[in-house]
Write a structure and sequence with these properties.
This protein has 338 residues and is of the alpha/beta class. It is built from 12 helices and 12 strands. It has 2 domains: 133 residues, Nucleotidyltransferase, domain 5 (2-Layer Sandwich), CATH 3.30.420; 175 residues, ATPase, nucleotide binding domain (Nucleotidyltransferase, domain 5, 2-Layer Sandwich).
């Protein structure tokens, strides 16, 4: 890819659709953000993507040459075909051929990846992986759901069919322990306990049980309250809101313990909107991780758990980087440690 190339990245979320144009020298040039039209179905969403891509391409092609288009999407997503397989946060989209819809609308190929893999790629190339000189990491994206991306030796680990890294569906709580039903059809998964959607859901449950005066007042003042509002309530000392985030931390600690014991990677990164409440949930997270992960205790300070450096732009940047990564070779083992 020549030095004058730009790429276009698409970050499809359960709430927002973001599309950006990017160059390696200048970073993000332009971005477009729309609400994700879930109720209108996947074809409408694919049409929105194509229109935004074409708009940005038209704006940039006079100054730069288009080097590729990367798309990050929630999963499970069968790759390389690019077909949704029962996505729990995109109801009714099962079987939709995302790659075919976008490529058909654009008349050109795209590089399609799980959105958490794209975010992990960005953190590896531009964020915490770069800062620490590490070429293997696992990233958890805490947003509408809980996604997971794995980078091994500088490359995305897709698994057999592109469905590796579905860490949101690790079973961590039994029904007797308050395990909530998950959109995947299981019970006690990490996702309903450690996502922004799960935080609001638990707040609504506590309000319905009575006694959660602070949460009830919040809903009365702001019916469409979200996880950030609950976090502010917790920071103000509300015991019920604090308990919600304490459960988030314990859930993440249990999930991370399984990942650390299984993968033994040097770095685990937490990103997405809910990661902004790190101050509220991290004490419980590290308590559970220390208690439950033998490998974490054995490796001491060598196993790092941190928040993402790139913040909310990680997914979009990762999508923009997909075309560059597709043609780049993995970094030499001598330059980065495992």
């Amino acid at each position: 890819m020549n030095s004058n190339a730009f790429t276009i990245g698409v970050d499809l979320g359960g709430t927002n659709l973001r599309v950006g144009a990017y160059t390696q020298a200048l970073g993000l040039l332009e971005t477009i953000q729309l609400r994700t039209r879930l109720a209108d179905g996947p074809q409408a969403m694919a049409s929105d993507m194509c229109k935004c891509i074409q708009r940005l391409a038209g704006q940039c092609q006079g100054k730069f040459s288009l080097g590729g288009i990367g798309v990050g999407s929630p999963g499970p997503l069968e790759l390389p075909a690019g077909i949704f397989r029962q996505p729990p946060n995109l109801p009714g989209w099962d079987g939709f051929e995302l790659r075919a819809a976008i490529e058909g609308g654009l008349g050109m190929p795209i590089i399609l990846q799980n959105d958490a893999n794209a975010a992990a790629l960005a953190e590896y190339l531009l964020g915490s992986g770069k800062t620490m000189g590490i070429n293997s990491l696992c990233m958890l994206t805490l947003g509408t759901g809980v996604g997971g991306g794995i980078i091994l030796h500088g490359k995305i680990w897709d698994g057999m069919t592109g469905m590796a890294g579905e860490v949101g569906h690790l079973n961590i709580w039994a029904e007797a322990e308050g395990g909530m039903a998950c959109g995947c059809g299981s019970l006690g998964c990490l996702e309903p306990h450690a996502s922004a959607t799960g935080v609001r859901r638990r707040a609504v449950e506590l309000i319905s049980l009575g006694g959660a005066a602070g949460l009830a007042s919040l809903r009365a003042a702001k019916p469409a309250f979200d996880a950030r509002d609950v976090a502010e309530l917790a920071r103000g000392g509300d015991a019920d809101a604090e308990a919600i985030y304490e459960k988030v931390g314990r859930s993440l600690g249990i999930g991370l313990a399984s990942l650390v014991n299984t993968l033994n990677l040097p770095l685990y990164v937490l990103g997405g909107g809910l990661a902004g409440a790190w101050d509220l949930f991290s004490p419980a997270l590290f308590e559970e991780l220390e208690r439950r992960s033998y490998v974490y205790r054995l490796t001491g300070g060598k196993t790092q758990v941190v928040t993402a450096q790139l913040g909310p732009d990680a997914g979009l940047l990762g999508a923009c980087l997909l075309p560059f990564a597709a043609e780049a070779k993995a970094p030499a083992e001598s330059s980065r440690r495992d």
